[in-house]
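Narrative summary of target 7.
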Amino acid sequence: MRNRSQFSEWIDARTGLVSRVSGLSGETVQGGAGLRHVFGSALAGAFLIQLITGLLLMTSYVPSSSHAWGSVWFIEREMMLGWVIRGLHHFGSSAVVILLALHLVQTIVMASYRAPREFNWWLGLIMMFAVLGLALTGYLLPWDQKGYWATRVATNIAGTTPVIGPLAQQVLVGGIEYGNQTLTRLYGLHVGLLPLVIILCLLGHWALARRHGLNGKERPQRTDSYWPAQAFYNLAAIGLVLAILLGVVLYEGGAGLEAPADPTGTDYPARPEWYFLALYQLLNEFESDTEIIGTMVIPGTIVTILFFLPILDRLFPKRLVHFGACALIFGVLGGAGYLMSKALLADWNDAAFILARQEADEQRDRADQLAEANGLPPDGASYLMARDPLSRGMDLLEANCLSCHAYGGKVRVQLQVAQPTAEQLASADPTRFAELGQSLSDPVLRSLAFALPEDFMAEEVRRDENDVTQTKVILKGKNAGGERVEAELVEGRSHVIVQTEAVQSASDLEAFGTRDWIRGLLEDPTSPKYFGLVPQCGGMAEWKAGSQLSSEQLDQVADFFAEYVIPYREGVSAASWELQFEDPENQHPGYEHFLNECANCHFWGLGGADGTGVDAPNLYGWGSPTWTRRMIEEPGARDLYGYLADHEQMPGFAGQLTQEDLDVLIRLLKGDFLPVRDSEDGSTTQPAAAGIVVDAQQQPD
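Modeled conformation, tokenized:
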């Protein structure tokens, strides 16, 4: 004890710190210690948690549009306790906003904005906006889909500010394009300027609070010392905040990370974090020509009143101003709660949003799986998806091929969401499907009539009541083009999901270019998977009708393709390649069968539609990336399907696809991709569906 006292004296003699702390602990708390004084300390504690976790995150975060997502993924998945640190930082921002709101309400209710605490009030307001700025600027830092699109929405709102809006937006974005400059500027604000403002205001706020004391006017007769009672309450409040945050992080498993930002996509369902959701909904309450009322006028008026509250208190009767201030703050909180509920309810009823959210979740899981299996691309996380056959390749297949071809039995499916207004429902004709759906209500019939085109021919209607929470009505039929159309709606809701399946008119491309595909073709060329839906390619069916090859011999032909044809080597001519089969002892048995039964139509070298009368493509290198690439780009070439009439040929895509796109497309056809991971147990499965195209169209209420 003696050593400790000497040490304290030694410290105090040189710094005065011990005397200063002793003086602070001996200060009095007007009105007595209690929980009503903990909000400021709890808020400062939450901010300290943000500061510490933020500094820890900075040790691994890379502020670059190429590597930000990868560094955050590393923190989440590889860094020791990284997911806990990031989770505390993420949910800590919500805690700061909640405590800030509570502290603001308490300050207004206790009229702590009055003299002599005016400057304390103004410093608190500055801190509030700096905290909201931290929340806003931190959103973009992971450079994922959620942060990218939410930041675009926020900066576009800032750009609507009169006079300075466009300039402010350009300064924040760093130009006209959202990219590395945007990220580094918001990163600088997030870790530099805004924390500095908060720390300075916090020091000033604390110093002024000591000067004027805590507001304890409700119990003026009682006074306690700060230590130990109030200190205990404050530490208990900070500990409770930390415990709640840890509980939320453990329950949620971290903060979550969406797929890497994709500036080329436009279908991400962008929504702000919950504390900005009321502002987002307020914007939606106004038409485009009056939206400035929601973005600037109303928020600006509220902020102006709060800022001048101490002055109004001196100009007008204090009770009147206090009543108005309390009414304002509770009105703002109540209005924010109403707008948040309305926004959440609107999303819950918005089928287009739900579909887009499901797709975003699938992309998030896929990006995580690719990063875990293959590592992070050195040239940026965006290449995770761009080089994935199942992501980029499937997008290309859906956009260019599945209106005619199928993939794994699935054709192009277009989903449209029809969301009629009350006027549109009133004008819809409910008698269109009255004969099929006599048990359906009038609103259901009107919704279906609005959603389905006039050429729709209904065939079947049924009610799905398996889900006890809702009853679905499903109407099936065809349109004038023969496409299968299925409309689905939930009773009680007005929107209808219309699913239109393309009519398959060409072969199934799953496993095209592999041994299995060629073996299946040799077995049954008339199958819809091969040429059964392509009458202009009926030569294979004619061959099959007269073929003498056994099943074993067909296997040998397929094996020959797998071993000698598909492994095509660039720069080797067909004649040179064929020399290896001159020696009968080296001949593959499948080669002999091919010569006997296939070579009459199919050539290796200069065969095909070259005036020889041969109506079959040249098969030299069939199934190789080179052959398939030519088939995609110029299927009407003389040595491919040039023998067909122009209207019978597949359209070529030369110049429409990049080399990288062709590579991922060919890999997709061959099944050369990482299977989809089952999120429940970590196992992997093949994709269950393909060719789904979401073309959601929403009509405002």
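The chain is about 55% helix and 5% strand.
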